[in-house]
Amino acid sequence: MSMLVVVTESVPDRLRGRLAIWLLEIRAGVYIGDTSRKIREMIWEQVNALAEQGNVVMAWSTNSESGFEFQTYGENRRIPVDLDGLRLVSFLPQK
Question: Is Hydrolase included in the keywords of this UniProt record (predicted)?
Answer without folding.
Answer: yes
